[in-house]
């Protein structure tokens, strides 16, 4: 650890600074760094510097402690360092036959001067004393104080790299932001003879963006990224480097979404909203023996691997230039390590709601320069039904049907609700809902209850908390256009004698008359299918919009049947999920 710390501290030794120096007299042009990390929420601050003898010091001090105590501790440390150096010198003289004793090291004078050159009083608390640009004197040595300088805490490249597909690093930083960091991309050097194997050394590419798309010329070569953290105020911290674990591999060629990208090259104007809803197939379901042998036996095993599918997903989603993206079946690790960092690089902020039992959940992304997040109102259907007064009447009705009640309460389905505000017109707000309903073909009655809970909750948000704001309700509803669930959402009500109340037989009959106040329209209509697997195809996914406030400008055409069935069904080497993304451009009325 210490050699890395020393390396980091030495890496910027002597770096020029425009900040004024304190402490009388003109200091040397090159000064050491004293790095201070001081965060209001933490009781201690940390101080890192390298003493003249080369030994690194890392101190933790109470933020409220008077500066004088910290300076005294630094003086003691410095004296110990001199003492150790003196012992080494004495030993060397003894071995060389020299006479005399080493001088006892004196405790050096340690003082701190502010940016304007005034000495900082010793009674000032540490938190106020150690300001950026101050100068620390330890004897004759001078240190420029850098308070909370930009620093990288994580830099990671994806495990799988495909030619023609964007490489999006995961960049985590403190006192810095990825959009202000500097990026330099390198490729492995090919051997001089032009052989296939990569040689030693790296060649810098012309790429300086956060996202890098390797060309076919880089197939077989590994990549390296050097990132320098920045804070947008011309302050930069020590760079980190990361090398890819494997080489760039050849991509799959044409993908099902390539033609769709022709319609979505640019982000829509400010009066429009491009919305996407997409079940991306959770890795937790794709990577089972059942999936490989029964559900998707036609799909090449490597194309079911999450690393491969993530390459396709990131290129597909980035190419839609969307303002809102609602995803279902998102593994938590995929959201944190892959999708959120990648879509962040394309200007989208992500929110995640997990289904506790499944380790996957829902993700909603919104374009930062078009929307800001006002509030989140996520729920788990079963918990909300039992605990929220809003659903008391429905809960009492459901109690009359204990078999159905038990099944409803066993489900881990969730609803993600986000209230967004337009960046250009604060009077325009949106209630964006995202869900994934119970999957079983005979679970129509369960889905009706889930929708009843969802619509009541959305009504509470979009009518009570934020009166009369438009609703966009996306998701995998596991319901075809002929189902009670679809009818309930689009018509505003469901009769107690609807056939879906007996979807799992008479013994699980559950008859209720339910309604909601919204006028919702399926923005993408009723496609022939949004889910296409070996044993089933049908329309299960929808983007419902508030027809009173929004209208459809255009629906991005789905891939052709020929494209979908090129590799028999979905997923495939050219399509990362068993569902198809819905995309539409909406216009405010």
UniProtKB/TrEMBL annotation:
Required cofactor names: Mg(2+)
Region ranges (Disordered): 1-30, 77-101
Position of the signal peptide: none
SUPFAM superfamilies named in the record: DNase I-like (SSF56219)
Pfam family, one: Exo_endo_phos
Compositionally biased spans, kind Low complexity: 8-20
Source superkingdom: Eukaryota
Chief location of this protein within or outside the cell: mitochondrion
Domain Endonuclease/exonuclease/phosphatase: from-to ranges: 277-579
Compartments, as annotated in UniProt: Mitochondrion matrix
Domain 2',5'-phosphodiesterase 12-like N-terminal residue range list: 149-249
Key words, A-Z: Exonuclease, Hydrolase, Magnesium, Metal-binding, Mitochondrion, mRNA processing, Nuclease, Phosphoprotein, Transit peptide
Family annotation (InterPro entries): CCR4/nocturin_mRNA_transcr, Endo/exonu/phosph_ase_sf, Endo/exonuclease/phosphatase, PDE12-like_N
Compositionally biased spans, kind Basic residues: 81-91
Any one GO MF annotation of this record: metal ion binding
Listed GO CC annotations: mitochondrial matrix
PANTHER family the UniProt entry points to: 2',5'-PHOSPHODIESTERASE 12 (PTHR12121:SF37), CARBON CATABOLITE REPRESSOR PROTEIN 4 (PTHR12121)
Recorded family membership: Belongs to the CCR4/nocturin family.
Protein name: 2',5'-phosphodiesterase 12
Organism taxonomic ancestry: Eukaryota, Metazoa, Chordata, Craniata, Vertebrata
Gene: Pde12
């Amino acid at each position: 650890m210490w050699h890395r710390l020393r390396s980091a501290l030495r890496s910027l030794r002597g770096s020029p600074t425009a900040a004024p120096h304190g402490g009388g007299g003109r200091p040397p042009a090159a000064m050491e760094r004293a790095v201070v990390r001081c965060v209001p929420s933490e009781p201690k601050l940390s101080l890192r510097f390298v003493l003249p003898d080369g030994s690194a010091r890392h101190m933790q001090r109470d933020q409220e402690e008077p500066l004088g105590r910290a300076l005294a501790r630094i003086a003691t440390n410095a004296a110990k360092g001199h003492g150790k150096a003196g012992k080494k010198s004495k030993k060397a003289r003894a071995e060389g036959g020299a006479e005399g004793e080493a001088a006892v090291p004196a405790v050096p004078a340690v003082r701190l001067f502010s940016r304007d050159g005034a000495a900082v009083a010793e009674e000032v608390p540490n938190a106020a004393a150690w300001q950026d640009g101050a100068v620390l004197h330890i004897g004759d040595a001078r240190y420029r104080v850098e308070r909370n300088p930009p620093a990288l805490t994580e830099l990671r490249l994806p495990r799988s790299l495909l030619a023609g597909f964007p490489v999006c690093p995961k960049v985590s930083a403190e006192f810095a932001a990825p959009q202000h960091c500097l990026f330099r991309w390198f490729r492995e050097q090919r051997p001089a003879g032009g052989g296939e194997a990569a040689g030693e050394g790296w060649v810098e590419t012309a790429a300086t963006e956060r996202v890098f798309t390797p060309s076919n010329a880089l197939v077989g070569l590994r990549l390296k990224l050097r990132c320098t953290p920045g804070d947008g105020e011309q302050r930069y911290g020590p760079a980190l480097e990361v090398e890819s674990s494997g080489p760039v591999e050849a991509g799959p060629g044409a993908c099902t979404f390539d033609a769709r990208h022709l319609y979505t090259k640019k982000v829509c104007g400010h009066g429009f909203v491009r919305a996407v809803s997409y079940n991306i197939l959770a890795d937790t379901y794709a990577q089972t023996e059942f999936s490989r042998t029964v559900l998707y036996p036609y799909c090449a095993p490597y194309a079911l691997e999450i690393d491969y599918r993530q390459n396709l997903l990131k290129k597909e989603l980035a190419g839609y230039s969307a303002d809102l993206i609602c995803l279902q079946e998102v593994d938590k690790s995929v959201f944190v390590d892959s999708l959120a960092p990648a879509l962040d690089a394309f200007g989208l902020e992500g929110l995640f709601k997990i289904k506790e039992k499944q380790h996957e959940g829902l993700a909603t992304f919104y374009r930062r320069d078009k929307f800001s997040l006002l509030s989140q109102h996520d729920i788990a259907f079963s918990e909300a039904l039992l605990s929220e007064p809003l659903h008391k009447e429905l809960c009492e009705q459901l109690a009359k049907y204990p078999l159905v009640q038990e099944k409803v309460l066993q489900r881990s389905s969730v609803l993600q609700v986000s209230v967004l505000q337009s960046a250009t017109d604060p009077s325009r707000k949106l209630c964006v809902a995202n869900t994934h309903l119970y999957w079983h073909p005979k679970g129509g009655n369960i889905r009706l209850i889930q929708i009843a809970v969802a619509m009541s909750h959305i009504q509470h948000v979009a009518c009570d908390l934020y009166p009369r704001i438009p609703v966009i309700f996306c998701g995998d509803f596991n319901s075809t256009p002929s189902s009670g669930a679809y009818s309930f959402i689009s018509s505003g009500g469901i009769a107690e004698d609807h056939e879906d109340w007996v979807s799992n037989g008479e013994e699980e009959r559950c008859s209720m008359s339910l309604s909601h106040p919204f006028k919702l329209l399926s923005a993408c209509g009723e496609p022939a299918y949004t889910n296409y697997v070996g044993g089933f195809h049908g329309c299960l996914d929808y983007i419902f919009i508030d027809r009173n406030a929004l209208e459809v400008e255009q629906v991005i055409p789905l891939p052709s049947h020929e494209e979908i069935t090129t590799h028999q069904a979905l997923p495939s080497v050219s399509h990362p999920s068993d569902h198809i993304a819905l995309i539409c451009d909406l216009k405010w009325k």
